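User: I'm preparing a small set of examples for a lab meeting where we compare how different chains pack in three dimensions. I only have the primary sequence for this one, and I'd like the structure in token form so I can line it up with the others. Please keep the answer compact; I'll paste it straight into my notes.
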Amino acid sequence: MKGRRLYWSEAIMLMTVVAPLALAEGVWWYWAATVLSVVCGWLTTVRRDRPLIGPAAGRVFVVAAFCFLLIEYEWVTSVPAVMALSHFMILVCICKLVQRRTFRDDAQVLVLSMLLLVVAAIVSGNLLFPAVLAVYLTVGLEALIRFHLAVEAARVGQGNRELHPSAADGGAEAPGRWARAGVSLLTGLVSVAVGAAIFILCPRVGAGMFGRFEAADGGHAVSGFVNTLNFHTIGPIKESDRPVMRVKIESEGGPDLPADTPLLFRGAVLDQYLYRLPLSKGGWGWARADRGDSHWEEVTLRVPDALDHGVLLLPEYDPTYARPALIQRYYLEPGRQLNLFTCYPPVEIGSRDLKRVRKRVYDQVLRVDKESGKLVSYTVSSPLGRPPALVEALAEERAAHGPAAEVRALQPDPPLPREAEIRDLIHEWTGRVGPLDEPKSRLEFSRRIQDRLRSGEFTYTLNPPPVPHQAEPIGEFLLSRRRGHCEYFASAMAVMCQLSGIPARVVSGYRAGDYNPIGEFYVVREKHAHSWVEVFITGMDWVTFDPTPARTAGQAGAGRWLMGLSRYLDYLQFLWVNLVVSYDADLRREVFQKFEAWLARPARNQPTVLGAVTAFVRELFGGRLKLTLAERLVYWVFSLLVVALVVLIGYVVVLAWRQVSGFLRLRLGRSATKGHGPEVEFYHRFCRRLAAFGLRRRADQTPAEFAEELAGRHPMLDQGPELVWAYYEVAFGGRRLSPARQLRIEAFLQRLRRSERQAGGESTG
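Assistant: Understood. Below is the structure token output for the 765-residue chain.
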């Protein structure tokens, strides 16, 4: 029974700690294998004592797992080293569960599960982790206690069997149901206290080193953001519900923004439609035109102020005179993303997590230099509309960076095979709109192209027909197939504008996702990845157009209660990520400094510690400061906590001193017995008599408890407790035994000696 409880404790710990790893990695094979091994181990090893694999097979399995670790570490670049190591540890634990386990195997499973918990703390930023931590600490601490008791019981039992083969093993008696519940409750409370202390004193340095483990851009089949676009390597797209970021939107200097306002968060700009030789990811696609590095600017950030004002990205533009503005607070999930998402154009930016960003002047794209291992939050301000001052500031900034940042009317390279047919289609759709170098005509031209693509002539689908290897995809889409996803629609409009001499570009990013009215934020998921078009209109700068048809509604049949529950869970996830996962050393230092400054107000700049304490105590009763009831209550709570902490420390010190002094007395008493303490020789004669009978004290028993147990089991040892207490008085109390007690103890020992001789034992006294 004891082995079964320990097995299930280890199994629960392992299944629980593997779950956040599987969620962070997006691969559930290892968790499923763990659950399967738990079931198999229970049915074969624990219940029937018929292990699935033997010791030799187990060693082969571990060696194979190590070879797999080397393969993942050296050749599988999509798997980070920390996850490759976690895979190895999971496989080793699986092997231990399905074979006959020794105490060494149990210890290995416990240690490996602890290491897996550390890895989960690093890579997981999901709300599942605190629940896993609570379960793990509660079950794990109980498993450690149970494992320690089992080891000690086995050690004592082995010692007793060596002394006397017929003696009982002396194993620890299994605690009752209420005792086990008490242990679980106590360990849970201790875990909460320890977890709170760790949270305050040791904030995370990088929770969630990576997000989704995805393949390279080429050939991806999961929806998501891309930096380049190749039509010949994109197959059917499968939508992913994985969250990418959460965005809170506010309007400053104007009316509140309706929740259904279409919002586009741009991340990459692609302006050159070209054909690459099919040596590596070849074919038709979009990329950034080569403009060198002269149009990049490095911006040093700072924490936004109370009004969300950060660092100005356009030095020649004063955003205070152009309102309303769109304030965007981004909470970007951990991942491998270097692009920062913004609405166009970003005018101000501030961040607590980022120190600097790089801005490409030509397209106002923001990037960071390295990947972040934790959640990144930043605030961006963008004007609503195109005020003339903004358009002028953007033009002046591009002119200051020379030809690399100027607006160009690029053409597909090389010319399209069906270009003449596409030009005829353009003329058919737009008719006579006037000279395209005039802003009004260019705007009308772009709107007609957009409206025609959004009409019923074209079909939106995530599973477009495959593009033949020799075919040009946009010509096929416009003239023949007329089925595709947003990349086809955006590319078609951009190509048609470029063929007409109008500067246009494809923008890749995300559209506003699911709005959560509880937290008033948007949940942007991988499935919300989107592509649209920006067309340059003189006097209006780059204007956004979205030629993709409106998508049909998703599952409308989901129950309201399920949708509401999902929103609450996502709101809790948002709070967890924002308040816990992103709680780093800088934020902790800032919180501590603010609290320290607020708490030190009653000290009145006292030069000494005694003066500060006196002033603080006087404030508790005097009330010199004008404080609210809540503030004064905080002072009282803090004072009571300090007093409780001092009392607790004093209590621990007293207990420690008692333990140390008792240990020293015991050691001194034993040494005195061996050489200079004949007054306690009677106790050691008693111990030798017991050893001759094959009786030995367990490690978790005191001499008095052992004597009481023997007196209850063996009538001839009924005077054992009196002898032990006499030993306590002499060895630790410094007392002398009366002659009457000495005579009783001597008679008791002589009786034991006679019993030993009668049983045929050897006397050592």
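A couple of notes for your slides: Residues 2-201 form one domain. The longest strand covers residues 243-252.

User: Perfect, thanks.
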